[in-house]
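To: structure subgroup
Subject: Chain for Friday's discussion

All,

I'm putting the inputs and outputs inline so they're searchable in the archive.
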Amino acid sequence: MKTKILQDIFAEVKWEKVWKTLIEFYPSQSYKEKVYFEVFWKIIGKVPVIDDMYLDISYIEEENSEDNYYDVCGVRDGDDNSYAIEYIPWDEWAGLKINEKLKWEYEKEEIVAHSLYELTYCGFVEEEIQARFKEIMDDINEIENMTEEELEERIVTVDDNLFNDVDELVKDVK
C-alpha cells in the first residue's frame, strides 16, 4: 500500500470544512480566507518532492500558561529530532509523508488546517518565503565564517543588566 503524502490529504477534503476548522483553531486568521484558499490549491497543484520526512502535529500544553499551541514539524524514522518546516519549499510540503499515528489522532481537515497555518507562518508567497530563508542562511554562513575578532566586534549579546534596565524603565512609567 502506498504511503499517503500531505498532498493526498489536501485532495481528499472539501475547502469549506478546512476553512471552518482553520478558523476554529486560529481565529485571528479569519479575515485571510482568500489567501489560504489560494495556497490550498497551490499545494494540490504541486509536483510533490518526496523524501524520508513525515509530517508530525503535536498539541503542546505550556505549564502554568494559557499559551498552548499545535507544533507542526517534520520527523524522520529512527531520528529523535523534530525539524522546523515552515521554510521548506511547498513541493516538499506536498510530499511530506503521513504516518498512521497522525491519521488516527487528527481528522483530515485538522491535518490540512494545521499544515496551512504552519506553511504560511512566514508568509503567503512561496518565493518571498524562500528569499527570506536564503537571507537567513546567508547570515548564518557569514557568522560561521567570522574570525573571533569580527564576532566580538559585530555580535551584540544580551545580558541580565539589559532586563534590569527595562524593569526600571517600566517602574518609572507606572
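Points worth raising on Friday:
The two ends are 65 Å apart (CA to CA).
The chain is about 55% helix and 10% strand.

D.
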